[in-house]
Structure to design on (397 residues):
C-alpha cells in the first residue's frame, strides 16, 4: 500500500523519457513539497518489501508450511517474491542516472547469455538494439501497470488458497489445542502496531539516509562501475568470481536452478514431518543457502552505493575525444556519427596500446586510406586518448 501511494505521487511528476527522466527526479527532490521524503519512502519501501517477503518465506520454510495441502500456496509465494524483485529491477532504471543505466545494461547483458532465447529476450526488454528511450518507456510501463496488476492477482490467489486450506499453524500439529478467536480486536491491534513501527522506521530512513543521484546517464562513459542495491549485492559479488566460459553458470544457470528449486521444493522435500529438527536435509540445505547469500553480501556490503571509479587518464581522454569532435564521426554505444568505425568495443578489437599511439600520431601509417586527420596532440594527450580507447569494451555481463 505504501509503495502504491508513494509511486502514484512520483508518477504525477515523472517523465519517462531520456531527455526528461533525470531532470524530473531532480525536480521532485528539489522543488516538490515533501518530494524528497516521498521518494525516500518509495526507495526504502522497496527494501522493506524485500525484507518482509524474505522473512515470510523463511518462516514458511522453517515451519514446513509448504507441505501438503499448501504446495500451490508456496509456489504462488515464490512467484510473488520474483515479482517484487522485478519491481526493484524495473524501477532501478527510471532515474536515468549513471548507476541506473549501467546496472540495467549489465542486467540486460546477463539475459542475453541465455541460450537460444537470450538475444530475443534482450531485444524485447530493450525495445531495440540499444538501451534507450524505448527501454525506459517499457520499464516504466511494466513497473507501474503490468507488475502491479500481476501482483494484485497473485495476492488474491494466495489469500484464496489460504482461506481454502487454512493457516499451517505451529509445526507441532497440535491444532486441537489451539484456541480460536476473531481477527478483531487482538490481531488488528498487533497488525497496527507493527505497521506503525515499520512506517516509523522507513520514515526515519527517508529523512536521515540520503541516496543522491549520480550523473545523468552517459552511454559513452564505459569507465563507470555501478554497484546495485543491497538486495542484489550478493549476486553482484558472485559475478566477480565467474569469468570466461563459466560466465553463463552465474548469469543464468545458478539463478534458474535456485528459482526452480524454490518453486518445486514442496515436491523435493517429501518428509511429512514439519518440525525443522526432524527435517535435517531441508534444514541444512536452507542454512547453507543463507550462509552463501549472507557471506557474499558481507563481502560486498561496503560498496552499497555505486560510485564512479574513474581513472584520471580516462577522464582526460574522454574530454579530448569530445574536444576534437571525434563524436561527429564515431559512434559509442549508439551515440555519435557513422562516418568512421564504431568504437563501442575498440578496446576488445584493438587491445594493442602501441597500435593506438601510432594511429593517433599518423592515421595513414596504420590505416592507409583513412579519412582521419592528424591532431596536434602531445605525448600525454596521446596516452590519455589511448587509455580511453582501451577502456571501451563490451559491457561486462
Amino acid at each position: 500500500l505504501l509503495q502504491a501511494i508513494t509511486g502514484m505521487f512520483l508518477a504525477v511528476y515523472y517523465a519517462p523519457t531520456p531527455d526528461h527522466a533525470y531532470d524530473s527526479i531532480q525536480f521532485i527532490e528539489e522543488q516538490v513539497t515533501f518530494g524528497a521524503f516521498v521518494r525516500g519512502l518509495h526507495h526504502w519501501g522497496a527494501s522493506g518489501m524485500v525484507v518482509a517477503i524474505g522473512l515470510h518465506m523463511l518462516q514458511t520454510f522453517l515451519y514446513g508450511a509448504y507441505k501438503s495441502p499448501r504446495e500451490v500456496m508456496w509456489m504462488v509465494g515464490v512467484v510473488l517474491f520474483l515479482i517484487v524483485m522485478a519491481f526493484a529491477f524495473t524501477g532501478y532504471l527510471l532515474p536515468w542516472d549513471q548507476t541506473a543505466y549501467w546496472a540495467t545494461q549489465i542486467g540486460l547483458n546477463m539475459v542475453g547469455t541465455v541460450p537460444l532465447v537470450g538475444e530475443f529476450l534482450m531485444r524485447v526488454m530493450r525495445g531495440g538494439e540499444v538501451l534507450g528511450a524505448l527501454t525506459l518507456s517499457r520499464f516504466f510501463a511494466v513497473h507501474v501497470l503490468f507488475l502491479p496488476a500481476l501482483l494484485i492477482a497473485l495476492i488474491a490467489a494466495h489469500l484464496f488458497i489460504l482461506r481454502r486450506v487454512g493457516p499451517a499453524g505451529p509445526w507441532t500439529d497440535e491444532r486441537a489445542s489451539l484456541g480460536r478467536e476473531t481477527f478483531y480486536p487482538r490481531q488488528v491491534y498487533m497488525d497496527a502496531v507493527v505497521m506503525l513501527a515499520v512506517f516509523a522506521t522507513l520514515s526515519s530512513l527517508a529523512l536521515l539516509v540520503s541516496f543522491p543521484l549520480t550523473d545523468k546517464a552517459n552511454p559513452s562513459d564505459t569507465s563507470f562501475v555501478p554497484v546495485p542495491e543491497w538486495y542484489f549485492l550478493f549476486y553482484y559479488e558472485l559475478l566477480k568470481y565467474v569469468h570466461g566460459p563459466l560466465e553463463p553458470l552465474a548469469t543464468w544457470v545458478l539463478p534458474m536452478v535456485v528459482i526452480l528449486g524454490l518453486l518445486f521444493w514442496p515436491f523435493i522435500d517429501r518428509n511429512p514431518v514439519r518440525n525443522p529438527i526432524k527435517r535435517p536435509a531441508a534444514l541444512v540445505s536452507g542454512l547453507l543457502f543463507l550462509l552463501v547469500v549472507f557471506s557474499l553480501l558481507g563481502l560486498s556490503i561496503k560498496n552499497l552505493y555505486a560510485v564512479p571509479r574513474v581513472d584520471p587518464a580516462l577522464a582526460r581522454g574522454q574530454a579530448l575525444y569530445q574536444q576534437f569532435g571525434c563524436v561527429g564521426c564515431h559512434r559509442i554505444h549508439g551515440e555519435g556519427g557513422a562516418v568512421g568505425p564504431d568504437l563501442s568495443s575498440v578496446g576488445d578489437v584493438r587491445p594493442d596500446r602501441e597500435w593506438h599511439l601510432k594511429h593517433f600520431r599518423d592515421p595513414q601509417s596504420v590505416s592507409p586510406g583513412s579519412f582521419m586527420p592528424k591532431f596536434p596532440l602531445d605525448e600525454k594527450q596521446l596516452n590519455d586518448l589511448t587509455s580511453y580507447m582501451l577502456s571501451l569494451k563490451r559491457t561486462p555481463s
Observations:
- The chain has a mean pLDDT of 88.
- DSSP finds 17 helices and two strands in the chain.
- The beta strands are 331-332, 335-336.
- The longest strand covers residues 331-332.
